[in-house]
Amino acid sequence: MAELVHTPERPGFGCAVCRRPWPCPPAKVQLSEEYAGDLTGLCVYLSAQLGDAIEEAVRDHNWGRVDDLYDRFVSWARRPVCWPQAEQYIDRHGHVGGSGTE
Ligand SMILES: [Zn+2]
């Protein structure tokens, strides 16, 4: 049986499968696998979703702060959930890190 793909529903960006706020933990795993080794592609995709979410937030006035949306949609991808090299990541300044400390 095929694995269900955890995708965002619109409006509201809840997960179509598990109803949690998207990207839910399974979506993060699936996206990390789909974009394995392509952090740029993953961030481009997530940023596009973030842009749509901000549009909804502005239109509906009920989503909270935009920087919270950035954390929810994009910042987790700095250390994707299941990449083989997950112990190593490149921080926002381009430095290669490894311990998980900010
Ligand atoms: Zn889900």
What does this structure look like?
The chain has 102 residues and is mostly helical. The chain has one domain. The protein is 39% helix and 4% strand. It has 3 helices and 2 strands. Strands 1-2 form a two-stranded antiparallel sheet. A hairpin with a 5-residue loop joins β1 and β2. The longest helix has 22 residues. It is globular, with a radius of gyration of 14 Å. The C terminus is likely disordered. Bound molecules: zinc ion (ZN). Zinc ion binds next to α1.
The count of domains is: 1
Strand order of the largest sheet: 1-2
Main pleated-sheet profile: 2 strands, antiparallel
Strand segment count: 2
- Structure class: mainly alpha
Proportion of strand residues: under 5%
Overall, the morphology is: globular
Radius of gyration: 14 Å
- List the uncertain runs: 84-90, 98-102
N- to C-terminal separation? 39 Å
- Element order, helices and strands? HHHEE
Task: Offer a quick outline of the entry.
With 102 residues, the protein is mainly alpha-helical. It is built from 3 helices and 2 strands.
List the helices and strands and how they pair.
Blueprint lengths: L24 H10 L4 H22 L5 H8 L15 E2 L5 E2 L5
Antiparallel strand pairs: 1-2
Helix pairs in contact: 2-3
The structure holds zinc ion.
